Each structure stands twice: as C-alpha cells, then as structure tokens.
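ok, trying the design again with the full structure, not the truncated one.
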C-alpha cells in the first residue's frame, strides 16, 4: 500500500510540472500579447522547460527521501515491536544456514538462560555440543532435513523446540530454523498438579470434590476404601452428601450456616457405606472460590473414627493394665480404691486392701532367669484371681508387688478368711517350664475405716502392715488393726543367727562380670553378698538386710564385705585376671556411719590397691532418702579416687536432675526397666532418656539384667556402653571367676 501511494505521488508531481511547462511555453511564444516574437521564442521556451525539469527532479528526490525516511522509521518500530514480542512470548528463534553455522539468535537468550548469544552467532553447531549436548543432538537432526519438535532445557529454562528445514536452491544443502517456546512455568504447574494428584490419591483421608452445582467431579482411593463406592459410581452424580448415614434438616442447615460464615464446617457425623453399614467419621466441608469471589467447588474430607475409637480403647486398656499379667496396674488400682472408699463412706461399710509382696523373688530371677520370673508372676496373678470374688480387684503394682481390694467387708473374721485364701495360693509349688518352684508371700492388710479414713492413710497402713509381715519372718499376713501376725513361718530366723553367721563364715561373695558392649572386654565385676544358711540354704541380702539394719549388724557385715572384695581383687590381679575395679553395695546405715570412709581407706591401704579399684554402689531409693549424707560420703571418698555408682537408676521415677550434683561415675539402670522394655515402648523410651542423661553428664551407663541377645542389641541401639547379666555370666564363686577370666601367660 505504501508503494502505491508513492507511485501516485510521483505521477501527480509529473503532471503538475508538465502542465506548468506547457503554460509557460505558450506564454513565452505569444509574449502575453498574442504575438509571437521570433527572436526570443526558442530560447525563452527551452529555458522555462529546463527549469521545470530541474524542479521536477528535485521534488521527486524529496518525495523519495521522505519515503525512505518513513520506511526506516517503520522498520525501527517493527524491530522494537518484534523485540517486545520476543520478551512477552519468551520465544527464541535460531537460524542455521546450509553450512551448519548459527547466523542469528532472536530472543532474550542472555537474560534467562545464562548463555550469551554473542558467543554462539557466527559459529558452527559444534560450539553447542560443549554447552548443551542434548540440544546439539536436536540441531544436528534438523541439519539432516528432519521436520520435528522436541523438548529440552537450555540453562535453567525448559523449552518446546520446533524445527523447520530450509533447503538452499543453489547448494542443495539444508539449513533450518528453530523456534523455541519457553514452557518452564507450564512444566512447573504440571509437576505441581501431578504432585497434588498423588498427594490426594495417597492420603488416608477420604476426599470428594464437587462443582458449584454439587455434582461430584472427583474422589480419591481412600473414599472408595472407606465407603465401598467406586469412582465410576460417584463421579458425575449428586451423591456427594448422600454418604451421610442419618441426614437431618438440622444437620444440613448447620453445615450451610458454617459454610456461609467461615467457608468451612467440621464435625463428627455418622456415614454410610455402600453396604448400608454406618460408621462414625470426622467430617469437614469447605468451599473453594474463584477470582470473582464466587463458589466454584465444594471439597469434603472425612476419616473413619471407628478404628481410632478402637485404638483409643486399646490404649486406654494398656494405660490401665499391666502388660505382663494383664491385671489392673497402679493407676487403675488407685482409681478403683478411691471409688471403693467413696462407696464405703456412703454406705457406712468396710473395705479391705491386701498388699502382697513375694518373698525371695529376686533369688528366683538370679537362679532361674527373668524369663522364668515373668511366667511365675503370670501364674501368681491367675491364682489370686481364682482366690477372690469376681467383684474384687486384683492388681499388680510393680515388680513382685500385688494388691487386692475387697468391698462390703462385715468383720475381722472375713478379712482373715480372705487373707488365708491368699496364702493358700502359695501352698502348692509353681511349675514353670517343667520346673517346680516354691514361693511364699508377705501380706499386709489395711481396713477402712479402722486403719485409715482416707486413701493416703489407708495405703500407708497396708504398706506398714506388709513390712511388719516381712519383719516377722515372711510367709504370713499382718493386720495393723489387730496388731498381730498370722500364719507364722516355721523357718524364720533371728538377729542372733545373723551374728553367728559372720563368726561361722556363712557369709560369702559371689561375683558377676561387667562387660564393655563395644569391645567385649570384662572391665569389672560386682560382688554380691549371700548368706549360706545351714538350714535354709542360700539367702539373698534382700531377705536379711532389713533385719540387719534393725539389729545394728550392718556395720560388721559391711566391713567383712569390703575386706573380702579388696582381698579378692588383689588375689585376682596376681593371677592375671584383668579387672579395672570391683563394686559392692552399701546400705543406709553405712551412709550415715561417720567411720565408714576411714574403713574404706584403711581396707584399700591394707591390700595396696589404688582407690579407683573400688566402686561403691548406692541404690537410688536409699540415695534419695539420704541425699545430704550420701553426697558428703561420696565427695569425701571421690576426692581419694574411689568410684561411686547409682544402683537401680530409674526405679523411683524421680526428678533426675539430682544426678548432676552427685560425684557418681556410673549409673546402673534398674533391671526391671529392661525386663519390660521388650513389651512396652514407654520403658524403652525411658531407658533411652536415662542413657541420654548419662551421656550428657559424661557418666558410664550400665544395663543390668541382660539375658538375651535381643536385649543386648536394644541397649546398644539406645546408646548404652556397659552391660551385666545372665547373657554373659551368672554370679559365680571367686574360684570359678578366676578360672573363667584369667589371661593366658605370655609365652614371650
């Protein structure tokens, strides 16, 4: 169109000058008088015509210049527009000639992709090989004349490439053009959409999506699993809200009001499966709005609460029952006792509780192992259940302690009758894994309101009665209200026997090795006190130390134990038994004995042992009751190099910050925690926490009572460093210990 306008402009100029020339010629010929002047006619006419030709040429040049200028301005505008088009559309245009050279690259390559077009233009395709081998392969395919499109990244952007071959007419070789469209954003949106779809399909919560007319557009697999409705049955239907099992107008109105106010509603409703079965669900409805603020979709989420309810019931049961015997635990026992006391208060009746503590149970574990001990506890629980009424409560508090609650007691005779039934549970031997085991128990009786009118005083009274029964010789029951023991054992012993035991050499130490879990090396041992009674056989310290404390014999026993352990360690070292130290337990009265530190120092000097060769173990319960005196003792002896350990660490469930303030080298985890760790996650978590405390405070942690490889693996997983138990060795005599752990003589 611009060319046509220019042509008409040139033609108009020509006609104008031709007409002007004709007019001037005739004017010169007739000299404006109508008469011709022969002498002037020819020169004047040609002069005018010549001037007109020159004027025409100048005018034509001016018109042509204006056309060129307008074309240049138009091209500049077109180029600017083309650049804007490349920027907005994120296009790249690659031109490759028939010789395989990049002749031009149009588009914002430098800005987005970290690749400079100036480094590529004018060079062969081989330069692209070093920058982007994938794209270079595509360029070489196009050079072969192939018409195709493909995808690959250039720099940090992702492109859809379209290749158009162009054959050169003279050379016959093929050049081509490539148009690359930036689809990075579309690719990211597609990846996000696919991820969202995977999340929706994999989630365990049912999801239903509806459009604004409440037609189902999508459901996930969890929905089909929970309701048995298939995707095909739901999509395209209006059955999204039909899964509500018992819909009411009030429910729908509540949901709609919630959607209007906040855009969502949540509540527990009853839903229906395709089979008609109802189930409880946590139901959420939300609205999705478009940019105009109008509702575009509804989204329904729900999850089956019936499984959660069953899980909660199971957890509630586990929280209230002992995981070994399946009896009520301390928590449920206290709750039932509290309710029973309230009923007794209202009805003005009596209630009795029986505290049952097994006699010598630790000896059973030491001799037969904790696995046998666990089975024995289960069998005792079964016998106790059979001995009482169905309405009574039999519970296991912890370890070897059981309790029984009986309500509506009429008199003392009935209480004693129940106590005797309890004692009969232990008359017949217990057969565990084909092995016959004799077991007895000490029972303390507390009666409401005679022994206590509230929960605390009643529990305290029964506990005191149980210790009275133990102090009176075990295998019997004791009632505080009556102040007497029942069913006295025939084999009870007296303080005089204990004093004679020292003189007659009936006390002995057996030793159990302590192992490093990382190296397997035996680093020490624990000396365990035993009373080799002439009639009753081996008696553990738990059965006579209470008597010893009350009779004032502990100091003599402690001195004998200390000297025996030091003497034996010196003898072992002479026999090449490689031990770092030997440990012994100390009792409450020894902690409070001002002369005990000197006794320890003298024993070490007597046998020429370094103080670090001895470790003194204090039970956590004893330590907490005598914290001030115990800390004084530990600081005094720690200054000389004597080691200390906290035995039964974790048994009291106390505030363990006390460990930070005591100079103890080692923490020995209560073996009952390890016994329960295989059945309860809470105990494993507690052990992990106790080991963590030791690590933080840089103290050695010992796992006590390791009997099976799985327990050893568990302790290693939890970060424990040292272990002691039947898996490595049972307690043995000094002679056997020497034979077992003596190093062979060096032949060199």
């Amino acid at each position: 169109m611009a060319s046509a306008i220019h042509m008409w402009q040139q033609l108009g100029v020509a006609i104008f000058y031709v007409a002007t020339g004709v007019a001037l010629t005739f004017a010169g010929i007739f000299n404006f008088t109508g008469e011709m002047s022969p002498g002037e006619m020819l020169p004047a006419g040609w002069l005018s015509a010549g001037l007109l030709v020159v004027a025409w040429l100048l005018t034509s040049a001016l018109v042509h210049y204006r056309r060129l200028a307008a074309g240049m301005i138009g091209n500049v505008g077109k180029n600017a527009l083309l650049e804007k088009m490349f920027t907005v559309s994120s296009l790249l245009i690659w031109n490759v000639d028939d010789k395989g050279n990049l002749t031009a690259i149009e588009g914002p390559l430098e800005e987005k992709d970290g690749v400079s077009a100036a480094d590529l233009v004018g060079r062969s395709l081989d330069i692209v090989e070093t920058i982007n081998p994938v794209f270079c392969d595509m360029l070489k395919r196009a050079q072969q004349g192939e018409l195709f499109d493909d995808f690959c990244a250039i720099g940090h952007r992702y492109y859809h490439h379209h290749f158009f071959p162009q054959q050169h007419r003279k050379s016959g070789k093929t050049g081509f053009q490539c148009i690359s469209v930036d689809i990075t954003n579309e690719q990211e949106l597609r990846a996000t959409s696919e991820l969202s779809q995977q999340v929706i399909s994999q989630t365990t919560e049912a999801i239903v999506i509806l459009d604004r007319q409440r037609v189902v557009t999508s459901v996930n697999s969890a929905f089909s699993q929970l309701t048995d409705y298939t995707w095909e049955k739901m999509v395209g239907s209006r059955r999204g809200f039909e899964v509500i099992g018992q819909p009411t107008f009030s429910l729908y109105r509540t949901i709609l009001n919630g959607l209007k106010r906040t855009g969502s509603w949540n509540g527990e409703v009853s839903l229906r499966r395709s089979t008609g079965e109802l189930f409880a669900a946590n139901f959420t409805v939300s609205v999705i709005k478009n940019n105009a603020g109008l509702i575009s979709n509804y989204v329904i989420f729900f999850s089956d609460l019936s499984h959660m309810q069953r899980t909660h019931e199971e957890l509630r049961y586990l929280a209230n029952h002992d995981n070994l015997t399946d009896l009520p635990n301390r928590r449920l026992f206290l709750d039932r006792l509290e309710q029973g006391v309230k009923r007794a208060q209202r009805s003005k009746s009596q209630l009795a509780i029986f505290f049952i503590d097994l006699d010598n149970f630790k000896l059973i574990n030491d001799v037969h192992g904790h696995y046998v001990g666990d089975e024995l506890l289960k069998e005792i629980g079964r016998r106790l259940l059979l001995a009482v009424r169905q309405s009574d409560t039999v519970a296991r508090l912890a370890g070897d302690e059981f309790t029984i609650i009986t309500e509506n007691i009429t008199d003392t005779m009935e209480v004693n009758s129940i106590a005797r039934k309890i004692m009969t549970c232990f008359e017949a031997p217990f057969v565990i894994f084909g092995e016959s085991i004799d077991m007895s128990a000490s029972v303390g009786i507390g009666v409401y309101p005679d022994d206590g009118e509230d929960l605390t005083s009643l529990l305290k009274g029964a506990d005191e009665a149980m210790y009275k029964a133990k102090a009176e010789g075990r295998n019997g029951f004791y009632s505080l209200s009556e102040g007497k023991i029942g069913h006295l054992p025939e084999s009870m012993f007296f303080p005089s026997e204990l004093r004679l035991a020292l003189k007659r050499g009936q006390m002995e130490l057996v030793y159990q090795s302590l192992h490093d879990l990382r190296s397997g090396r035996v680093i020490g041992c624990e000396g365990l006190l035993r009373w080799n009674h002439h009639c009753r056989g081996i008696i553990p310290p738990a059965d006579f130390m209470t008597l010893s404390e009350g009779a004032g014999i502990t100091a003599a026993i402690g001195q004998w134990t200390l000297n025996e352990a030091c003497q034996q360690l010196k003898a072992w070292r002479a026999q090449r038994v490689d031990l770092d130290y030997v440990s012994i337990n100390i009792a409450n009265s020894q902690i409070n004995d001002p002369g005990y530190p000197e006794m320890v120092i003298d024993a070490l000097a007597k046998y020429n042992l370094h103080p670090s060769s001895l470790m003194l173990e204090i039970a956590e319960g004893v330590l907490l009751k005598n914290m001030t005196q115990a800390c004084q003792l530990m600081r005094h002896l720690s200054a000389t190099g004597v080691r200390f350990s906290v035995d039964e660490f974790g048994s009291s469930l106390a505030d363990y910050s006390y460990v930070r303030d005591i100079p103890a080298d080692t923490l020995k985890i209560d073996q009952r925690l390890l016994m329960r760790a295989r059945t309860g996650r809470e105990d494993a978590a507690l052990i992990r926490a106790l080991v963590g405390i030791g690590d933080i405070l840089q103290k050695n942690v010992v796992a006590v009572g390791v009997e099976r490889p799985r327990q050893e693996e568990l302790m290693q997983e939890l970060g424990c460093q040292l272990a002691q138990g039947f898996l490595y060795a049972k307690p043995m005599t000094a002679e056997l210990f020497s034979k077992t752990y003596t190093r062979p003589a060096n032949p060199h």
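Keeping the full-length input from now on. Residues 32-42, 487-492 have pLDDT under 50 and may be disordered.
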